[in-house]
Amino acid sequence: xxxxxxxxxxxxxxxxxxxxxxxxxxxxxxxxxxxxMDDVKNGRVYxxxxxDDMFKEIxxxxxxxxxxxxx
Length: 71
Fold this sequence. Notes:
- This protein is mostly helical.
- It contains 4 helices and no strands.
- It has helices at residues 2-6, 31-41, 51-59, 61-67.
């Protein structure tokens, strides 16, 4: 394979590398995970029962105007 690659015009050298060993990815060691768990611990997480409920929580009174239920 090396010889075939060297035959291509403009290729002077070819280096073959072994694939990197797969690391076991542990999400619990990431900063984002730790921040999320801190939010849960300190009560900064909200559960919405529906999309409308979520928008009402995020936008407050503005959500009523957006959804068209304002009179």
